[in-house]
Amino acid sequence: MFYEVIPAKLIGQSHVDVLTYSSEENLKPGNLVLIPLRSSKIPGVVVKKVEQPEFKVKPIEKLLYNEPLPSHLFKSLFWLSDYYLNPLPSVASAILPNGLEKTRRNIVSRSRHVRGFETKLGSFRPDFSSEEKSQIPLNPAQKQALERIENTKTATKLLFGVTGSGKTNIYLKLAENALKAHRSVILLVPEIALTSQLVQVFEQTFKNNIVLLHSRQTDRERHQIWEKVLKSEQPEIIIGPRSALFAPVKNLGLIIIDEAHESSYYQENTPKYSSTRLASQIASILNIPCILGTATPLVSDYYLAKKMNALIELKTKAKKEAHPAKVSIIDLKDRSLFSKNRYFSTPLLNAIKNNLENHHQTLIFHNRRGSAPLTICENCGYEALCPNCFLPLNLHLDTYKLICHACGHTEKVPLNCPECHSEKIVHKGFGTKLLETELKKLFPSAKIIRFDADNKKSETLDALYEQVKNGDYDIIIGTQTVAKGLDLPLLATVGIAQADAGLSLPDFASEEHTFELLTQVIGRVGRGHLSTANVFIQTYQENHPAITCATTSDYETFSDYLLKNRKLAKLPPFSYLAKISITYKTEQTALKYIKLYQKELKKFPKISVSAPTPAFHERSTSGYTWQLVLKSPSRKALSDALNSLKKSPGLKITIDPPSLLIS
Prior knowledge:
The protein is an alpha/beta fold. It contains 16 helices and 32 strands. It has a seven-stranded parallel β-sheet. It has a six-stranded parallel β-sheet with strand order 17-27-26-18-25-24, with helices on both faces. It has a five-stranded antiparallel β-sheet with strand order 2-1-4-3-5. The longest helix has 15 residues, at 555-569.
């Protein structure tokens, strides 16, 4: 017998999606097999039985598992290839765990520590009984939302709940109902380390039904977890980042995506795809609910949910004693408000002092790490750039080094200009490390902790979060790492160093991302733990809708503003978007080929093609990157146009990009 098999590995630049092999066994579509490929042996996915080909074929080495991929995963493999123009082998590689062909030693009694609680790797025995009394209380608003979810006909539903409205309780009740019906659940989170309060609630509620996937697991651990899920006949709750969608669960009954607005749900590397779009597709295949939960929906999701009558809203906080924080906008142009310090306004400093006296906490948010983002020569204009990415190097005063935040390249801080040898080297701008230095000078007795990508290596976020929650620190400084999901009972004040920092980025999503971040940060206070809470928003653009609407949690006004602009610009959700980019060693060659692609694409009548422009990260060690942005009212027209392009090694295609800044 002969079978078409998708190899779980790209074969050079040949763009071969399937290969033909022989086998003595009667194989099913979705079976996982080991196949010979050149001098190696790799996993593959059986597609179908075929007639004997005219050419000589190699035999399949062996069947890896008796159980084939669940039907929804098998179908998703082809959908991801077709919808996002991904090669089938790259999709198969993403769906399957690394080292599938290896024989693993069993891990006995090994526990995985996930921010303050443990789960046993081998614990897959169900511990949930339908006889148990439910420990999931729902208030009237939550009960009404749950009823709306159950009665909404569309598979994908948007649960739009303000911060503190109790979306977690609805997740728990939906998961409980699925388990009682002997159906499994997939809960997607942006990153377990940043959402472990939610994970912990699920762990405590459902005990041994939980299967966790996270970045700290080794290939061996992930392989063994994947294998156990494939073979398991019991209902389970799979919790993890976007790759958890590929867990081979049988009888899937529910998908929940928490913080559904998060950009991390988009896979930027090949195979490129949106996890929320894939989850929606799986829900349609299986006719099961897919819940997108968020306090700040992506405007496209919000628009479509309203259009499809699939919007469920929770507008009130779950705790009756929770009062909104008092929000003050501080104009950074009015320097009289910064008489004590150039980075922190006087009202903010007074609030910090008051918090220290009352043993309350302050959170300072600034979405830029390091001490200074620019190092330049005032004499000749020299700028310190990364030799790999050609992006500005950031000064880190604690180590006194220049560091590239894109690739990690480090250099010594120059004492003289490398070009004109002048001593007029200056450092411009500020980051979280500089704010930490300033606060230590202003409040020498305060216990200060900084959260950003720089301190992940020295201490785990798990331990730091627990210390902050317990009140071990007075002032918390951080980037978006601390903006999301935290519930700190002693937090009384949030200070935002420069709220409009992201608005200047050349991207259609910059306003939306700014609004989302500000709303999330503001939502860290006013959660009912303290009688009063305040927020100080420092900004140069105090009248920008992203700022004003975030201060009042007015999502509707902001979405109306954004949708009006998107419609005029023919941007999602009013059109489909794609980006193509080409990279070559010289700028002239890159520009030459991007113009050829532009000429080809302009032949298609339903496609709008932009002028060639340099990519946001224009230079790298690979060369120069230029790009085109495509818009179309028809998804099929866009796919047809992109499929017509002649493939080349330097060509990248991104369908439905959440941002034009991604590579």
